[in-house]
Amino acid sequence: MEDIRQNRLPPPQPLPPPPVVEDIPPYFRCPISMEVMHDPVTISTGVSFERANIEKWFFTYNKKTCPATMQIIVNFDITPNYTLKRLILSWKMNESCSSASSSSPRPPSMEYDDVVALLKNIELSPFKASSLKKLRLLMAIDDVVAVGAKPIFVQANGFEVLVGLVTQIAICESSNFANFEACEEALGVLSQFPFSKIEKLFELLTRPEAIKSMAIVLQRGSIEGRFYAMELLQQISKKGYDYNSLSKHHAIDLFKSILELASDEIIKKASTVKMTDSSIATHCRYGTLFSSALELLIEIMESSKKCRLLLIEAGAVCIMIDLLPDSNRSKCEKILHVLKLLSDCAEGRLAMAEHIMGIATVTKKMSTSNTATKIGVKILWLICNYHPSERVLEEMIGCGTVKKLVGILNGDGRSSSTKEKAMKIMKLHGSFWRRFPCFPYEFRDYFKLIN
């Protein structure tokens, strides 16, 4: 009995408290997987998702709705949500710091030492990419945490160091892979600074050699590098950069780079080819780049008529017409907008009129939306008013342009300005088209009334 008492088991200890569930902000979770997002992107409904999840929803399962709101989706463009990504990065860093009881807030001197050490290593070391990646992470976190890395970067002449790296690939035509990778990473750091607040960065990046370097990255860079270069060029345009200050050679090189990016075979096929899971991300990111390239072209042309002439010389009209047939609604409207701006110039109208598929392609895509109809009629009006050759007018009756214009005049839901332009086209050339046997019989009397 004594032995039993001595070997008796100790009384049961109380169970440990259940682990505290991490307090994750709900907007950091992907609405599809409910996991914290690593690469958040935003769709046309304004909701953000993890990139892989929403791409699978759209392009593997072929869904046409928003998973969160169940709205019907027409525009399948996917836009990176860099602000949300930085917020999540910052939150993760704060969580890791708070979980370590011995850790304490980093003093400003440590932050200063980190930035200065990275910049020195970037200047002196032949292996710059890893230091640039660390610097990019520091800059991203500084957007949402008052650590002060960005002011330190500016004080330590970080802009000069990084722009110097960027321009190397323009100065040294035979740059090796390491230099090219360093240039892309440098662009990634610089893209995190708003031009609206920093005049110095704007001055450095609008130098001809910097513009040339970004054009080279658009042509030969990785997807990430192209995104960074495109984002910086868009910021430059929005800041009001005068592209007329570039020499003709530099300007045409830049415009060719943007056009080549827009006409990439991967981009053209992205929305039409059946994709495997492994190729979805690449195709979708190229699709986003395509939209950005079109937006940049529009911004450039709206600011300068001289640039429109240089874009025409670079082959913009032919490229846009080739891209138009396979475009979805959003991209179609942007391409037509580009063609309309080009058609404001005599050289652009002539190129449109002489292209064997120009009028037919614009006519076919006018049915895409009311906006496409409005822009398409403007293009046709410019061609009919300034280049009404017999070949052009015969092409318009043969490819169904005339029938579509009459339909616009008879239909509802069109703006008065669109109908007015369609009427002007009919008054100018209705008598010519009435002579053709393919002219719709039911519209002959209608043409007598408007002439």
UniProtKB/TrEMBL annotation:
Residue span(s) of domain U-box: 23-98
Chain intervals for the UniProt region annotation (Disordered): 1-20
PROSITE patterns registered for this protein in UniProt: U_BOX
Catalytic class of the enzyme: transferase
Protein's name in the database: U-box domain-containing protein
Organism: Cucurbita moschata (Winter crookneck squash)
Transport is among the record's keywords: no
Function: Functions as an E3 ubiquitin ligase.
Pathway as given in its UniProt record: Protein modification; protein ubiquitination
Domain of life: Eukaryota
Classification lineage: Eukaryota, Viridiplantae, Streptophyta, Embryophyta, Tracheophyta
Known catalytic reactions: S-ubiquitinyl-[E2 ubiquitin-conjugating enzyme]-L-cysteine + [acceptor protein]-L-lysine = [E2 ubiquitin-conjugating enzyme]-L-cysteine + N(6)-ubiquitinyl-[acceptor protein]-L-lysine
A family per Pfam: U-box
Single GO MF annotation: ubiquitin protein ligase activity
UniProt keyword terms in alphabetical order: Transferase, Ubl conjugation pathway
EC number: 2.3.2.27
Biased composition (Pro residues): 9-20
GO biological process terms on file: protein ubiquitination
